[in-house]
Amino acid sequence: MKIGNLDIGKKAILAPMAEVTDAPFRQICREHGAGLTFTQMVSAKGVVENAFATLKVLAFSQSEKPIGVQLLGSDPEYIAKAIHELHSFKPDLIDLNCGCSVPNVCRIGLGASILDKPDLLEKLVKTMVKAAGKIPVSVKIRVGGDRQHVTLMRNAKIIEDNGASLITVHARFRSDSYKQEADWSWIGKVKEAVSIPVVGNGSLFEPEECLRMMNQTGCDSVFIARGALGNPFIFSRLNAMLSTGKDPGKPKIDEVASAALRHLSLLIKDSGQLQGVKKARKHMIWYFRSFKGISSFIEKIYSLEEAPLVEEYISEHADKIKKNVYPEEDLSSISQSFKDRVLFWMNEKQTQEVAKQ
Ligand SMILES: Cc1cc2nc3c(=O)[nH]c(=O)nc-3n(C[C@H](O)[C@H](O)[C@H](O)COP(=O)(O)O)c2cc1C
Fold it and tell me: Cα 77 from chain centroid?
């Protein structure tokens, strides 16, 4: 897939995820073959005002390229000023978030609430394209507010007609929770209707599903979100399938443990021991969620604060999994509850904080 001068082939993209797609996670996913990664969403207002919290989540190094920045905003003036600031960071793509369905984000006219406002969407895309100059612009949208309000096709045309280089379709409605399955057929409809590249998104957990989405809808690439949590292997497995037609299969426990330990060490390097260990907990749980012993792992990992103890425990846990010492657990229902309650570590207040960044 070509976006401006950037060609990522059919490689998958790490979707923007607030509180998740920080530099260490992006690095891990890139090392496993992600074609492009995104920062967490940042508020346009925060960028313009040089808010510390915003700049912290926006920061990336040039070695991270290709990388996209996702903006959350609805005021064209702020969006233009924010993009002006972004030029010095040299991102490869600037995305507008019209997909976030968190009530506190939509209530203040941001994210997926823009889906209902075609005139505003037009103005925002036009403004972004002008301000971004040579940097390509993309927009991430959903199918519509709810099943009675499908705005997808109209919005896709607005996005294309006003000069954006890429559309990402999250094939759910704003009213949907993760319990509603994504309906990929919408992605195919957009692909038929526009000539700019279309990226498909929604419920991709296995590399085989990524290929199936590409084949069924004709989309040019895929955004992987929850499917990458604790599972950067999805990128390498997909790349292997694209080049050899064969899936190397799920990683063995040694490979999972070594990715988890590397991820932990990158987080500690990035944030220091105390914050690094805190940030690592949810990731470590995701790495081990499909192995027996996950219930005792969750309990223990929250009690450890020192990095060497966490490292030691992870190696010990992996060893026990290998030796098959843990009792049987209903892993499929655990895995389902991680999919449904993916923000399990955040409370409502923290979710609001994320939207403000
Ligand atoms: C923890 C988390 C944070 C997210 N943050 C963002 C975000 O900042 N911007 C955005 O456009 N989407 C965000 N999303 C939505 C994902 O990018 C993606 O569209 C959605 O999860 C659907 O893909 P999936 O079904 O494969 O998970 C987030 C999702 C999760 C799980």
Answer: 26
Cα 316 to ligand 1 centroid, rounded to whole Å:
32
Largest CA distance in the chain: 61
Asked whether 226 lines ligand 1 (CB < 6 A), one says yes
Helix (H, G, I), strand (E, B) or coil at 343: coil
Per residue in 146-178, pLDDT (tens digit) is: 999 999 999 999 999 999 999 999 999 999 998
Can you read off the two tokens belonging to residue 149? 């309000």
What average pLDDT does this structure show over 43-70?
A: 95
Q: How far apart are CA 276 and CA 27, in angstroms?
A: 15
| Separation of CA 201 and ligand 1 centre (Å) | 9
Task: Tell me the one-letter amino acid at 78.
Answer: Y
pLDDT tens string 196-221: 999 999 999 999 999 999 999 999 99
Q: Please state the domain extents for the chain.
A: 2-249, 253-326
Q: Of 100, 106, 210, 219, which is the active-site residue?
A: 100
Give the fold, CATH level 3, of 253-326. 1.10.1200
CATH class for the region spanning 2-249: alpha beta
CA 324 and chain centroid, separation: 33
pTM above 0.85, yes or no: yes
How far does the centroid of ligand 1 lie from the alpha carbon of residue 327, in Å?
33
Supply 196's token pair. 């700019």
d(CA 167, CA 158): 11
29 is known as an active-site residue: no
144: which DSSP letter? B
Asked whether 93 and 138 are in contact (CB, 8 A), the reply is yes
Q: At what angle do helices 294-301 and 331-340 cross, to 10 degrees?
A: 50
